[in-house]
Automatic annotation (TrEMBL):
Pfam families: p450. The keyword Heme applies. This is Cytochrome P450. It comes from the Bacteria.
């Protein structure tokens, strides 16, 4: 996508798509400065799309889907957004996230024990997908043995969010969300009867007792944490390995100087951003951006993957360089909805790459080429064959 982004940044940095004249517009925002500006704007509403769907005649599957998502903090406006975010914020505070580094390393080692003797693997299936799912399941407090089911639900959700939506995709994702919803309600009931634990489930139950969350909010928050924390981090790992393998000099440098791991992970987040585009809501009050006027009802889509390659901010933006210091990337978003799990994602990324470099010394690309998955919002490999 990067040459296309570059053309838009130069010629039409705030670009509007309309399905028909007079219909509301969808605005794609390509430059770094405009992305920061629009994401901090108060003239946008996240909740509007759900209010609209829930009020109007919509197919049942679409309605059910939208109703569930309307309880997620990422889909809410002030003051509800702050209330929902505060309920689980401490689970993701920098100290708590750092404490998970060792645990992530242990889980990474367990997964690698299974593939080291094989000499080859599809790293997405064997490592990049299960690792963050197992970590986030522990952070939330979900039983480990349930991970294949959780993986299926997470996949159904991302299939819908990442493709041109069809009724079939809505139905599949809606069914997954309904099943996950019922599972979480049962788990909450079970945990209420047991001892308190200090995971996200425990925090959400505390917030329920204080009256800070409804039961729907509690379920929605836990569901969002799994979906938001899984594929994004899997893509950081997959895209990062792929980029290192196609830049052998940088891979060698990282092996020689492990102290560069922190800046290497930031550069991976910039260079192949796991979330390329986010839908950040509907315009509430008219505002101007890059000389264009956005009107109430229009939607706004900042293209984070383009902002992170903006030549106005990054020198030689198409060069992958793990020693970069100009790393003001927007991979985790900006403004009040900035990624809540950013610190955890960084910790997981560093632990995952350290384990891979340590356990797979001869790591190189496999015979078959890596395959990108088609996606509207994320940058994701379908397969990453490697040998070692
Ligand atoms: C929000 C990216 C990992 C939880 C976001 C947003 C982005 C993002 C761009 C803003 C979305 C928007 O404005 O609509 C990423 C990337 C990750 C990652 C690139 C990995 C490399 C995680 C993890 C968690 C997490 C591990 C842990 C559960 C969240 C939550 C929000 C969020 C809860 C919503 C915050 C809010 O609305 O206030 N993430 N994320 N993310 N992320 Fe992440």
């Amino acid at each position: 996508p990067y040459p296309v982004y570059a053309r838009f940044r130069a010629a039409d940095p705030v670009h509007c798509v309309r399905s028909a004249p007079g219909e509301p517009g969808v605005w794609y925002v390509f430059r770094h400065a405009d992305v920061l500006k629009v994401r901090r704007s108060r003239g946008l509403s996240r909740a509007a799309r759900h209010r609209r769907l829930c009020a109007g005649p919509a197919p049942d599957s679409l309605f059910r889907y939208s109703e569930k998502l309307s309880h997620w903090m990422v889909e809410r406006d002030a003051p509800d957004h702050a209330r929902l975010r505060a309920a689980v914020a401490e689970v993701f505070a920098p100290d708590a996230a750092r404490a998970l580094a060792a645990r992530t390393g242990e889980i990474a080692d367990e997964l690698l024990d299974g593939i080291v003797p094989l000499g080859r693997a599809d790293l997405m299936t064997a490592f990049a997908f299960p690792l963050p799912l197992l970590v986030i399941s522990e952070v939330i407090g979900l039983p480990r043995e349930d991970w294949p089911t959780l993986l299926r639900w997470s996949r159904a959700f991302s299939e819908l969010e990442n493709r041109r939506p069809t009724l079939a995709l809505y139905t599949e994702a809606g069914d997954a969300i309904d099943a996950f919803d019922a599972y979480l309600r049962e788990l909450l009931g079970h945990r209420r009867r047991g001892p308190r634990r200090d995971d996200a489930l425990g925090r959400v139950l505390d917030a329920r007792r204080r009256g800070a969350l409804t039961e729907d909010d509690a379920v929605g928050t836990l569901m969002l944490l799994l979906f938001a924390g899984h594929e994004t981090t899997a893509n950081l790992i997959g895209n990062g390995v792929h980029t290192l393998l196609s830049h052998p000099g940088q891979l060698r440098l990282l092996r020689e100087r492990p102290g560069l791991m922190e800046s290497a992970v930031e550069e991976m987040l910039r260079y192949e951003s796991p979330v390329q585009t986010v839908s950040i809501g509907h315009v509430r009050e008219p505002f101007t951006l890059g000389g264009r006027t956005l009107l109430p009802g229009d939607r706004v889509m900042p293209v984070l993957g383009s902002a992170n390659r903006d030549e106005r901010v990054f020198s030689a933006p198409d060069r992958f360089d793990i020693t970069r210091s100009d790393l003001r990337h927007a991979a985790f978003g900006t403004g009040v909805h900035t990624c809540l799990g950013a610190m955890l994602a960084r910790v997981e990324g560093r632990a995952a790459f350290s384990a891979l470099l340590r356990r797979l010394p001869g790591l190189r690309a496999g015979d078959a080429p890596a395959r990108w998955r088609e996606g509207l919002l994320t940058r994701e490999l379908a397969e990453l064959p490697v040998t070692f």
